[in-house]
């Protein structure tokens, strides 16, 4: 039987060595993690220090004010031990392992010790449950979440990029944490993004004022709306029945 599963390859290019901590936001339902990561980059005045390219995925080139840019970019600053990955490119489930393998090979080669993924997930919740929760390896919990006040996600399953990254953390010394918050259909879900930004500020002891995020979201609303439409078209083909999948 011929294997017709598509394959995708990725390559990380960077100008400077990354920090020991990588924070990542990906294109997913509600765009909360992606919006939060973009806002953290702006508020911390990080500069682009690298990017990720891909083969065998549909061509996707974001642009702003007539200037194109890479869809997956790395940002950092010399005096701050944080590198942020802002990933506008939607990574389908079948390509998640390839993307994660490249990112994790890059972290191994460059001394990255911790990966934090920001994510909004459309799981069932009550009105009072608009909080940030975690799914994290035990070493991440011990190192980063002590006295954080965050609660774990009780149960469920991960797939796609989240599963690929967390699985690697289970079997290695790489501390891996997924910060999860309920997300709604609107894109971007600004309130969900604010929760993630505030959590990053608290966990990493950096000063980030999340108030301007409302204005930031309005400025990029049209861009994110178009991106959300792309995601919805793809996710309709891959949406799991159990909403606890992430």
UniProtKB/TrEMBL annotation:
It comes from Halogranum amylolyticum. It holds the Pfam family PAC2. Transmembrane segments: none annotated. This is Proteasome assembly chaperone family protein.
């Amino acid at each position: 039987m011929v294997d017709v599963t598509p394959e995708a390859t990725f390559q990380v290019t960077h100008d400077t060595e990354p920090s020991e901590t990588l924070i990542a936001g990906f294109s997913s339902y509600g765009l909360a993690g992606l919006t939060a990561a973009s806002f953290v980059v702006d508020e911390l005045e990080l500069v682009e220090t690298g990017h990720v390219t891909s083969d065998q995925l549909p061509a996707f080139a974001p642009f702003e004010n007539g200037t194109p840019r890479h869809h997956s970019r790395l940002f950092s600053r010399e005096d701050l031990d944080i590198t942020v990955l802002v990933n506008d490119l939607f990574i389908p489930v079948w390509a998640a392992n390839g993307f994660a393998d490249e990112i994790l090979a890059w972290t191994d080669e460059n001394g990255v010790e911790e990966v934090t993924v920001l994510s909004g997930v459309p799981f069932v919740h009550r009105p009072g449950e608009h909080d940030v929760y975690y799914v994290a390896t035990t070493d991440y919990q011990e190192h980063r979440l002590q006295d954080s006040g965050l609660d774990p996600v009780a149960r469920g399953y991960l797939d796609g990029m989240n599963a690929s990254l967390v699985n690697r953390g289970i079997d290695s010394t790489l501390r891996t944490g997924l910060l999860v918050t309920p997300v709604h259909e609107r894109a971007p879900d600004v309130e969900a993004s604010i929760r993630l930004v505030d959590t990053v500020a608290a966990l990493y002891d950096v000063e980030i004022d999340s108030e301007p995020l409302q204005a930031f979201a309005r400025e990029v609303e049209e861009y994110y709306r178009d991106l959300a439409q792309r995601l919805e078209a793809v996710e309709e083909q891959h949406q799991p029945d159990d909403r606890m999948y992430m």
